[in-house]
Write a structure and sequence with these properties.
By secondary structure, the protein is mostly helical. It contains twelve helices and no strands. It is globular and about 80 Å long. The two termini are about 45 Å apart.
């Protein structure tokens, strides 16, 4: 359902962006009449996509929360049943809180570093290129990304903890306490790395296999609408959407089940040690 909702939302975004595509087409016709080259500006499309991004993330969070709840119940040996919004809310809240904890730091550092060292600057000021302060600021986003990855690994078990009837903040604290141990950290990393490799590899493979959809979708949409730019962007997105949907269908249930099992194991082990 979340995938279907994402497809519907993508169609809605294209409908909302249709005046932008129409303006691009008209400008292309005008520049062709003037016999001048036309390089279209996709800034407005990027801004519209950024505005729609929270809705896509919300659909993704709802889908992952439902799958996490089902996988956690399967690991616990409970009978499957439909999740009410009240049961999904803590898991969805964990995704939101975890995102707010993990990702603001690298984003802020990247923006600040670009402001001081970006190639768009006409002068070497405020930092002179080649100096050690310049290099320190330029590569600071890598350090911030490393910190974000560590935080993300430390909070990996939080959705499984929330599905196990903990509140959002309690789930984050529980994941932190279970992961920041020698055994917990090693097992989280040992499980996370193969899953990341599998996800990235499968996404790449399926997207490559689906590349023939690009000219097919572009040709069909251009013939139907007469708008080259709408057809062009739809063709670019088609194999990517197929890759994301297939990869999510394969890896999300596997990932949720694996981390639910790991959370259950570490939770029992911690309880036995306390006893």
């Amino acid at each position: 359902m979340a995938g279907l909702g994402g497809l519907v939302l993508t169609v809605v975004v294209f409908v909302v962006a249709w005046p932008l595509f129409t303006r691009m087409r008209n400008q292309r016709v005008w520049y062709h009449y003037l016999e001048d080259p036309y390089l279209h500006d996709s800034t407005d499309l990027a801004q519209l996509a950024l505005c729609a991004l929270p809705l896509f993330l919300l659909l993704l969070g709802i889908g992952c929360a439902a799958i996490q709840g089902a996988c956690s119940r399967a690991v616990a040996g409970e009978a499957p049943r439909g999740d009410s919004p009240a049961r999904l809310r803590p898991v969805l809240a964990v995704y939101v809180l975890r995102g707010l904890v993990v990702w603001p730091l690298p984003l802020i550092v990247a923006v600040v570093a670009d402001r001081f060292t970006g190639y768009h600057l006409d002068t070497p000021l405020p930092l002179e290129r080649g100096t050690w302060p310049y290099m320190l600021v330029k590569y600071s986003p890598l350090a911030a990304l490393f910190v974000a990855v560590l935080l993300r690994l430390a909070l990996t078990l939080a959705p499984a903890a929330a599905a196990d009837r903990l509140g959002a903040r309690a789930a984050l604290r529980r994941s932190w306490s279970l992961t920041w141990t020698r055994v917990g950290a090693a097992r989280v990393v040992a499980l996370a790395v193969p899953l990341v490799v599998l996800t990235a590899g499968l996404l790449r493979l399926v997207t490559q296999v689906a590349l023939p959809l690009r000219p097919l979708v572009r040709g069909i949409l251009e013939d139907a609408t007469g708008n080259f730019f709408a057809a062009y962007y739809a063709g670019i997105l088609a194999p990517v959407i197929v890759g994301i949907l297939v990869t999510a269908a394969v890896t999300v249930p596997l990932t949720c089940t694996a981390f639910a099992a790991l959370h259950s194991h570490l939770d029992r082990r911690d309880a036995l040690q306390d006893a």
